[in-house]
Amino acid sequence: MTTTEKKIGTAANFVDERLGAAKWVKKSLNKVFPDHWTFMFGEVCMYSFIILLLSGTFLTFWFDPSQKEIVYNGSYEPLQGLKMSAAYASTLNISFEVRGGLLMRQIHHWAANIFMAAIVAHLLRVFFTGAFRKPREFNWILGILLLTLGLVEGLLGYSLPDDLLSGTGLRITSAIIQAIPVVGTYAAFFLFGGEFPGTDFIPRIFTLHILIIPGIFLAVITIHVMLVWYQKHTQFPGVGRTENNVVGHPILPVYMAKAGGFFFVVFGITAFISAVASINPIWLYGPYTPGQISAGSQPDWYMGWLDGLVRMAPPLETHAFGHTISWNILIPAVIVPGIIFTGMALYPFIESWITGDKREHHLLDRPRNVPNRTALGVMSITFVMISLINGGNDIIATNFDLSINQIMWFSRIGIFILPPLAFIITKRLCLSLQRADRELLLHGAETGRLLRLPHGEFVEVHAPISPEKAYLLQSHEQLVPLEIEDVDARGVRRPGALKNKLQRRLSKAHAVSVPKVTEQELKEIENH
Q1: 386: burial class by Cβ within 10 Å (0-12, 13-18, 19+)?
Q2: 151-195: per-residue pLDDT in tens?
Q3: Is the pTM of this model over 0.85?
Q4: Long-range contacts of residues 481-486, Cβ cutoff 8 Å, at least 24 apart
Q5: Whole-angstrom Cα distance, residue 100 to residue 154?
Q6: Which of 84, 143, 197, 280 lies at a 20 to 30 A Cα distance from 369?
Q7: How many CA atoms, within 13 angstroms, populate the side-chain half-sphere of residue 61?
Q8: Which 8-state DSSP code applies to residue 334?
Q9: How far apart are alpha carbons 316 and 304 in whole angstroms?
């Protein structure tokens, strides 16, 4: 043993005698992680967040979070001599005078978009595969919290430069806050320091953006990762995979090597996009002035659906008891998102109540095997996509030579018709895929080769599928609809008859599926 090895061993023994860390470290180093490409979505979230922290720290050294009015005398000549806020002027200075400043701004903004896209993709993967079920309900709620924080942090982030585009977004934000009955006006005055735009908002959102919300992010992400570590990772069904084991790679050396390499891949792609694709060119928008609005103003994609909901709302107001309630803002910007996010957070408990399934689940579902959940997810995506399209109705109208009114009425009608239609179509497609799996399991894979029998009939030759494929097609379980009787064994009517009837009907709808292939059917096929 070399001198260096002896020193390392002595130090490790010193720590272990006082903290008892050896047992925990040994157990942690043997931690196994399953291998599937969809698990990378969560890693992209974490790596993008690290890039955001690093690039954001760089930008804080030169950004001046002040709404003090100054005259610009920087290097960008088209804006020289104009009055603007110190925040806008410092952002121009970062873009044109700080070495690497524009690249860092672009990296920060692109990383934010990638971060939000990865969160959405990760949540969709968790939802469609049922990874939110017991015991991971709390982790699902943390994911919804991260998505909500991301929306708020993104809004605050692109509002900081105080340009004409972000000022337009702040004006909409102010209107949404004021639309809240009774407390809305007071809240808006408190946040903006008086009448919009005020003089205190940029310093306040700067503190929220660089300190408070990132601190909450770090705490929530840490808890999220700790829960994944403690509860063990979910895995897709397959040969040798059960509810009680994890098949994959140990954390050292395979997983850590792959994770480290993947971080640099994410960073490299983000840097490349930032170097070749411009995003948020604030010098083209100009400084914010309350009397102006930028043409074709669009928020980042993850806020566009909210903007689209507000745009499609008809002008509805109520005047009562000295108060004006703007339903055209309150409903699409506050009530509908509140219902959506509350429903998302509570969905694990809602599905558990519908199915009556209280067991722990560590194996994931194939989306086709849970038609009701998959159809609900596609219906929700359709709702958001229609809203997002309407959020860019002016840009779409300009580029495709359409009328904004045409797009508006398409959105208003489609928001009620297309999501239910998407639900029905998706559910039928899932059942069709289940039938295709059943045929594949019973008769094998189609080869495209035709064989003529002695009596002249043509049949297609089928090839047997692999045992692994057969196991995958047959390994899922099918829930049985709940049987809730209206009366108990003594003939007494059960309490909550309406609730029981609703649960029974929802359970029946959720359990609709094509029957699995039985062992008897497989034997008959083999004997035949």
Answers
A1: buried
A2: 999 999 989 999 988 888 888 888 888 888 888 888 888 888 877
A3: yes
A4: 481/507, 481/508, 481/510, 481/511, 482/355, 482/356, 482/507, 482/508
A5: 22
A6: 143
A7: 10
A8: I
A9: 22
